[in-house]
Design brief:
Number of domains of chain A: 1
Radius of gyration of chain A: 19 Å
CATH topology of the largest domain in chain B: Rossmann fold
Strand content of chain B: 25-35%
Mean pLDDT of chain A: 91
Strand content of chain A: under 5%
Radius of gyration of chain B: 24 Å
Order of helices and strands of chain B: EEEHEEHEHHHEHEHEEHEHEEHEH
Largest sheet of chain A: none
Distance between the termini of chain B: 44 Å
Oligomer: heterodimer
Helix content of chain B: 25-40%
Mean pLDDT of chain B: 89
Largest interface: A-B, 34 and 32 residues
Number of strands of chain A: 0
Low-confidence stretches of chain B: none
CATH architecture of the largest domain in chain B: 3-Layer(aba) Sandwich
Number of helices of chain B: 11
CATH superfamily of the largest domain in chain B: P-loop containing nucleotide triphosphate hydrolases
Number of domains of chain B: 2
Distance between the termini of chain A: 26 Å
Strand order of the largest sheet of chain B: 6-7-8-3-9-10
Order of helices and strands of chain A: HHHHHHHHHH
Amino acid sequence: MKMHRIMAVIRRHVLTSYSRFDRLFNMLYWPFINIIIWGITSIWIQNIAHELNLAAMMLTGLVLWQIVFRINIETAKCLYEEVLDQNIINLFSTPLTWAEWVCAMLGIGIINLFLVIITSGATVWFLYSISLFDLGWSIIPFMMCLLLSAWFIGFFISGLLIYWGSKATDYLYTIGYVFSPFSAIYYPVSALPMPVQKISNMLPTTPIFEAMRQLLKTGTYSSEYLIKSFVLNGVYLTCSLIFFYYMFNKSKAKGLGRLD
Amino acid sequence: MKRPSVLEVHNLVKQFPVKRSITSQDKVITIVNGMSFNLIEGEALGVLGPNGAGKTTLIKMLLSVLTPTSGTITYFGKNFFTHRSAILERVSFASSYVKLPARLTVRTNLDIYAQLYGIPSQERAQRIEKYLKFFGMWNLADRETGVLSSGQMTRVMLAKAFMSQPKIILLDEPTASLDPDSALEARTFIKEQQKEHGIALLLTSHTMEEVTQICDRVLVIKQGNIIANDTPRNLAFSVARTRVIFTTEDPSALASYAQMQGLIFHTSEKSIIVEIDEQGIAGLLAELAVQGITYTQIAIHSPNLNDYFLSIAKESV
């Protein structure tokens, strides 16, 4: 594995993403709109239900969810851009390996994590005076777990894109959404119907939002939530990478050139 | 001293399954059917064949963007499937049918590709300038790649391929979208660079002139099989002889002489075409002078790869 090749891929996508207003706008626009809508809604509910911390819980959940939602899209979108640019043959006929591509995506994920947290966190603080730092140092493991979740979804979608190319475009924008109702972002798992709770408990995102709510309510949280999330993320990310690698090779058997 | 092979392909096969229907069994189509050949260090090898012969499929397998069904590919004595990354550091590729990221500038694109090949930053800038200047693209260095014409894109792709100073370059119809002037310029550049740096070239093309100008040897492929492997000249002469075209007011005297000598000839109202080996031309002209047979004009047409290509195309019909 060569660092210069990983850096070249990161550079290519960072330059494409952050030097383009439309791409940057798209990355920041929806979180901003969501924050405004959910912020007003949660403050209104908080006032009529006299539920302390409701707005903080909902908005902190929303900001943390942006990590999963935006980064999974951005991870898969890098591959999608290569398909759109008809650059797949060029790229994979260089010494670049699949593993180096994956490492580059991990690097881009970390860059996007900072971007999402800084912009969404600042918006919430500026509009509603709610600070993510109220979570204390716990924000770091929370963010790491959610980043792992974003990667596993992103690499799963990458597996679909490398095989089906632009035919899989719809999955790029929709698969992340599938996880949102089950992840208990804005409500506790107990609020879900019993059969759905079973699905919810199998996701690595759920324990993080449960821990977040517990922390904001009581000032502390059970470390079991973090352990569960890390273990589940490890399993899902491994499966997702195996799937992506399998689809990459399956696609090579048909020819990566057909995607261009 | 005999130059070593830098690429050896042995019994390469590529088959694709074709789904027919739920009830019938899947069918398999064979695009590359057991090809074996080698590419010698510093050699320019052309791959010729009609559409669908398997040229592009072959190139894709040689680049590892398509997995062969069976067979082996060996570069520099190493198995391609187990040493892919190390091998591709010394192999590059250009095609007029693939593109580069549209939103990045020409300079940035080339810089990123140079980085993928591990060229140090300072050297990258120098090489980009050198190759873009050669192709008359220096003034477009900061233009987004997406707005380039197909001819300009082809030049950028060629710059990309040569910039990493590889030992082998695979070119898939590299001048297909260039006008005749630029195509000639590009071919001259390819040949010069190849000779200067001892690069081995594998080139597919539909332009016989290009293959003749650049290639030392040609593989002719048809329906996934190599049907000929020879120099462009030998291939051309294998299907046709030199034609001497005499223009004359009265072709009958020349026709009688040709018949008497047992030569192959075709006549029309004011000309006669005699098919003859190249070495026999001087003797024929001398004998015509002795016999007092006159003509107003003479043209000599040597067979070329076009004749060869047309002959194999005819066989297909």
